[in-house]
Design the sequence.
């Protein structure tokens, strides 16, 4: 079989190995593939792997040899899976590989808000502590998480992992989900209550027509003025213009994002430069252990396909 990986760099910048692909045939790995190179690089291949490189209907119609598409991600919107279903081409994704890592990232943003570690370290390195008249000083307000309310919108595997960490910090945990099931320490509620009571509101929902632009001006104005919004789900769940206005005008106190509406974002994004928002470049999933787990599932998916029993198909 002939195999191509169209955009392997994000998954493997050099600290993992693709050599296992040799068990299945001749393979070529590209760090990135621009739109105008997709057909050239994938033509004649039986197996195509992609992370964010789009495989549209038009593209796939010109790749008649493709028999299997492997996603290096959980999301599968970059592939026209309906076309693939009609052609009986398995499209297999990587589910539930980053649960703990994303939950950890949520609290990295929260703890930067409550403890301002980076700001304080910067102050120390620039001479602030050496010049201080006191043994201790602060350059930003500090807060305890114990007793604060953590609101979780979406209570799948990641939402549950976030809840466990919040409970360990002594937080009160509220959650909104369409399918509530008993979870010790968590109170299920409606979205209006979640907005009004949460000190920290974190989003863990899929991107659907119903959730696109969910966090808009009305949503933000219903939150506490002291609240922090965290988004590690999908960028378009949040209206970035509305969030920028809310952060500039004290509608809410802070935000933490690991995802944005356009990735990479444009240089003039209205959220850039604000001192009450932390933004990380979609790295919640990118820890070494997390990527190694992703690759292992990717390998299992291909093995299952080769044995005639595809797994983790998206349709």
Sequence:
């Amino acid at each position: 079989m002939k195999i191509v990986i169209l955009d392997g760099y994000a998954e493997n910048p050099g600290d993992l190995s693709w050599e296992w692909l040799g068990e299945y045939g001749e393979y070529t790995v590209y760090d990135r593939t621009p739109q105008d190179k997709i057909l050239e690089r994938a033509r004649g291949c039986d197996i195509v792997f992609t992370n964010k490189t789009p495989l549209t209907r038009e593209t796939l119609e010109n790749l008649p040899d493709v028999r299997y598409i492997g996603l290096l991600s959980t999301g599968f919107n970059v592939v026209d899976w309906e076309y693939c279903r009609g052609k009986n081409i398995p499209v297999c994704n990587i589910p539930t590989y980053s649960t703990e890592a994303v939950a950890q990232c949520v609290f990295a943003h929260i703890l930067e808000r409550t403890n301002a570690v980076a700001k304080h370290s910067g102050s120390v390195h620039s001479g602030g502590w050496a010049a201080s008249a006191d043994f201790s000083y602060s350059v930003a307000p500090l807060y305890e998480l114990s007793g604060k309310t953590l609101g979780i919108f979406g209570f799948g595997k990641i939402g549950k992992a976030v809840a466990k960490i919040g409970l360990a910090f002594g937080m009160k945990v509220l959650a909104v989900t369409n399918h509530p099931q008993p979870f010790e320490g968590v109170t299920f509620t409606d979205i209006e209550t979640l907005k009004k009571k949460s000190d920290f509101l974190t989003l863990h929902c899929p991107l659907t027509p119903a959730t696109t632009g969910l966090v808009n001006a009305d949503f933000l104005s219903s939150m506490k003025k002291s609240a922090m919004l965290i988004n590690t789900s999908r960028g378009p769940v949040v209206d970035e213009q509305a969030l920028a206005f809310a952060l500039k005008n004290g509608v809410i106190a802070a935000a933490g994002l690991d995802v944005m509406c356009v990735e990479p974002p444009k240089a003039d994004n209205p959220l850039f430069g604000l001192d009450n928002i932390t933004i990380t470049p979609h790295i919640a999933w990118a820890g070494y252990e997390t990527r190694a787990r992703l690759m292992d599932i990717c390998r299992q998916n291909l093995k299952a396909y080769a044995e005639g029993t595809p797994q983790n198909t998206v349709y």
Observations:
- The CA atoms of residues 119 and 125 lie 10 Å apart.
- The mean pLDDT is 97.
- The first helix runs from residue 38 to 42.
- Residues 99-279 form a domain with the Rossmann fold fold (CATH 3.40.50.720).
